[in-house]
Records
---
Amino acid sequence: MSHVLLSLALLASAVAPPERVVRMTARRFTYSPEVIELEEGVPVILELTSLDRDHGFTVPELGLRIDVEPGKTAQVRFVPQKAGTFLFHCDIFCGTGHEEMAGEIVVKPRKEARRGN
Amino acid sequence: MGQTTRREFLQLAGVGGVVFASGLFEGCASADRPRPAPADDFYFVQLSDTHWGYKGPANPEAAVELPRAVELVNALPKAPDFVIFTGDLTHTTDDDTERRRRMSGFRAHAARLRVPAIRLMAGEHDASLDRGAAYQENFGSLRYSFNHKGVHFVALDNVSDPKGILGDAQIDWLSRDLAPLAKATPIVVFTHRPLFDLKPDWDWATGDGSRAIDVLHPYPHVTVFYGHIHQEHHQRTDHIAHHAARSLVFPLPAPGSQAKRTPIPWDPAHPGRGLGLRDVETDPRTPDYRLREIALASEA
């Protein structure tokens, strides 16, 4: 029985890609990193912290948004469903450079990403 | 809805338009200027995104644009009934004292407009960092409505919440404000940010703007004038027309035309290119709106 459970667990881990964690920081008026490369179909957790004041993090095309507050870790969990480049930006007005506080998520097609590895 | 070129506009009226909102400067018209005709048809001028206090490469001559716009409006053959500024009167600053100084500077220039009324509203640069505190001290309410010659005007605040939303209380206020109106009443809405999702990944949207559109939707004659995107733009959501005005500081790129929403680079050979104002003429009996765009400087 234990062999069967172990086999199922191994099978499941082989089928579902492991969740990837990407840590990001936000401060006026940049995110770090500003470009995040992900792989289509691979689950990801974005962990964001603010180094100064309240910011927002939103990716309208992916339907993602969260508040990023100092002293807290904000988490966004999702599975990229399609390849492409998706812009993110701060949507809580934070000062004179607010309009430039942006970046992009680049989702590579699964096959292309694997060839690149 | 007609739209004219600058040349056509100049042939028609001489110069172009601005719009303000708040009633702050009621009674600025001078005795030597023709007053608006008492007839039902009238026009107003929309000015937007003056960003008073901006200093940067996108417009090294930013300080001359507002005074130039004031001169253009004052040169109109007939004064508009009112002028509305659709937000970002000042450029943002972290310094509360400097923010108030910029608002005073804006007020001094706007007060030179020789029109019966100047109406104002806030943009995120004026109001988001302090939730509208300095703006209200200087200019009054962030949202309001008024009636003028058969048209119901509403100014909405989608900037003092730094998330760029209207909020539940304001949506309720809008519903109550419109409730007494006959359905056929012409309604003009002024906002800073677009109420619809023009380009959300450039922050050209209002988080809960669709809720305001839902409230407005039962009324068949609704037109929205807004700013924020620093360019002329026209779009409809069903029967509701939305018109963005050019800026008076620097132009921004067309939605999605480049990777980032960075300003169109300053061209020293063509200072003022892409900047402008608009006048809006209407006959509430129709009701229809004729927009006339005018460049602040030669576009040649």
---
Amino acid sequence: MAITTPKTAYFRGIVDGSPFILLIIPFATLFGVLATEAGLSVFETLMFSVVVIAGAAQFTALQLLQEEAPTIVVLASALAVNLRMAMYSASLTPYIGSAPLWQRALAAYMTVDQSYVVAIAKFERSPEMTVPQRIGYFFGAVTPIVPLWYGFTVVGAYIGAQVPDSWALDFAIPITFLAMIAPMFRTLAHVVAAFVAVVVSLLVAGVPYSLGIIIAGVIAMMAGARTEKWLAARQRAAS
Amino acid sequence: MIDTTTLWIVIIGLGLGSFFLRFMFTGLVGNRIMPEWLLRHLRYTAVAVLPALVAPQVLWPSATGGTPDPARMAAAAVTLAVGLLTKNVLAAIIAGAATLYGLLYLLG
């Protein structure tokens, strides 16, 4: 299906975002379960998911609240987990930066790992897309994700039972993200960046508050940019 | 028991803070031109941040208390391989999940 209007872009986004339904349903349910176990009401649990809308940061905050960590520590740790959102925002800016402010604000609220990775993969593959088409596509990609995040938080809050370990839910995130990243290795520079990210993230895995992700991410981005420059210089020398 | 006031401070503070992080560039930079060196780095955001997020969980899963687990490593390898070969996200997820549950059952 060729994308010709923002509307077809929106439907294309829905299709491309829908594999994440498999991830969002169990995770939202799990958050609902854990939050009510921690003593939150159904309303408080739902508001947590609606206001914050960030899986990993919500789990972190909930964990620290239960440990009765100082409020400032809870906030700083959970925001550190979410620091990568600023990197996503920067990465999306060249593509949607000229959209109307309200659209950018709404897109910012809905910038999560899943919507970012679906959208950026599409924007890179299809540079001919117009800004309204990109915005349409982005909102399409979040359509199967965000309502389910709210809805299944509530379902989990009502179920309130423990999710069995045999479901191996911890591994839903690595599997869905690896599946999303695999088609993105378009050049040697992408491969180098990913390789450096893996090596550095393992070396700095002991750094607290998930800051290792940011350290490894920045170093890997530098490695990718360096490789791109080197490849371009070599191509110029050859021609 | 979590104190209600603390909870709401955290929910609202985390919501505002997260929104600020997400809006920082799309909102404040907007359509101003960013320098070429910065754009060159930003092209690698996805292939840098997501592997960094995933790699430690593949090697040292929290579910096993950080002990490397053959089923999880094999599932990660299969997901990546199917993703690279087919470029089909859903096929890669299903292959990875099947590998994980299959091996957890066989090795369990």
